[in-house]
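DegT/DnrJ/EryC1/StrS family aminotransferase structure dump, as promised
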Amino acid sequence: MLAQGEKVREFEQKFADYIGTKHAVAVSNGTAALHIALIAMGLRPRDQALTSAFTFFSSASTIVLCGAVPRFSDVDERTMNIDPEKMNLNKCKIVIPVHLHGHPADMDPIMEKARKEGALVLEDAAQAHGAEYRGRKVGSMGDAAIFSFYPTKNMTTGEGGMITTNDEEIAEKARILRDQGQKSKYIHWGIGFNYRMTEINAAIGLVQLRKLDSMNKRRETIARIYSEELNIRGIRIPYVAPWAKHAWHLYPLMTDARKRDEIVDRLNAVGVMARKPYPMPVQEQEAMKMLNDPERNYLAVLFDKVEFERTPVAEKLTKEVFYIPIHPSMSDEDVNYVVDSVKSVLKQIS
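structure tokens r here:
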């Protein structure tokens, strides 16, 4: 069988064991995981859900795909994740903290505030396979969590995603939703999607999962070299909270916004694949500003014109952050070349 079969079930079980949850539900990609997790958790048209202003678009677009209104929270400048003190959960059914770059969000106060406000928590761990918060794997603390296995992630299935949860009802609904709403062959309980993972993807995932800790260890080694060598004038190395085990999906540096683009351009000119982050907070994207436009959003009939609050820290990060390469296949020679190139470029433009 090439469709969803024994390899998918084995991958689900082993991934659940790794994360420390009762259930794992494999799907076709990380966006699909977000979409059906939100539906399985009860997000419905005209509900509201909160997520980070500094994240990939799908953390918010999947809220819209449920017909719900996205809201955005500003972030902590050091971790670049949702700042629990800035979260406004009024009328929000779900909050989606993102473990950005592989650094865990500060989950204890997020969970405490969500419970107090009656909101569910969906962890977006698309960039954080193997990261830990106070000794607990990310993806095991919220009501549910999602992971992406896109080719650039810490582990890949070629393309794929996973939902983890300890909630039997959420898991069962997610399994039905991913498979055209079927409870059994050709028996459709509800309206669902073709979000299944294939056996081929799952087979790749099983091998990748066995290698994940060793690949993350190499990422950690590279990050340690970068942080030791690049703790210099002109840039700021990434902060790691004392309660965090970082997965180092990305290595973000910060610099003066007036120099950032030139630094990135010069690094690329010498063969270092530096890049900039998201160009603006998510709510500043034109698509988010025009949710009631049927040309841009097929669910526009559900939306009035939405006004979003500004998120100044997220806005600052979009202008000051840049990334340098970090990947387990990098050799020591590669790492040293990146370090020397960054130092050289900073001297050139200082």
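The longest helix spans residues 199-229.
lmk if u need the other ones
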